[in-house]
Inverse folding.
């Protein structure tokens, strides 16, 4: 479980195909503090640490992860948001994030506004019920507040601190991002669906 508060901005050093999987070696300021078996969110995707170097760690993304997230399109040199799993006695500064990406969304527009940035995203209509105005959403591992959701689009405001310390500063229009909808909303939607049957 995570909170959507990014600890470190990592960089993909290498990617190796391994059957239908891909192995990623990532350099970051937290890599040396990890150990094999740790769970860490990579752009919102929970992956298990396999190896640790002086300033790097390695993880493998399986076929399902590559299909559901933007990891199938990652390349060496890309920057990636990292967050270690939360401790139960810690603060939840963002919101409860599982690290189980629901889908990808596409960045449609980026607008600067008085020092902040407004990012607009298009997503699949079937998820529309999971977004509410001022609700929570996780984009590339970052806990954010939803603005003006419609059946196919929504926006988020990125403050200067978040822009500078996460991969949002590298995001361009047309890029795909990993999106995880609020777990509470998903449970409520599921219960309502079951109540109809």
């Amino acid at each position: 479980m995570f909170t959507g508060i990014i600890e470190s901005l990592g960089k993909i050093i290498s990617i190796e195909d391994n059957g239908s999987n891909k192995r990623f070696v990532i350099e970051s300021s937290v890599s040396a503090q990890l150990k094999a078996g740790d769970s860490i969110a990579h752009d919102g995707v929970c992956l298990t640490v396999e190896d640790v170097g002086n300033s790097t760690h390695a993880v493998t993304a399986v076929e399902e992860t590559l299909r559901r997230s933007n990891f199938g399109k990652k390349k060496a040199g890309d920057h990636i948001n990292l967050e270690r799993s939360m401790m139960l006695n810690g603060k939840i500064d963002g919101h409860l994030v599982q690290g189980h990406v629901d889908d990808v969304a596409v960045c449609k527009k980026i607008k600067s506004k008085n020092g902040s940035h407004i990012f607009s995203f298009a997503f699949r209509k079937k998820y529309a019920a999971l977004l509410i105005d001022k609700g929570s959403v996780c984009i590339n591992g970052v806990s954010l507040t939803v603005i003006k959701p419609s059946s196919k689009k929504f926006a988020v405001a990125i403050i200067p601190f978040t822009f500078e310390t996460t991969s949002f500063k590298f995001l361009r229009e047309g890029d795909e991002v990993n999106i995880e909808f609020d777990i509470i909303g998903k449970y409520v939607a599921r219960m309502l669906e079951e109540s109809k049957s």
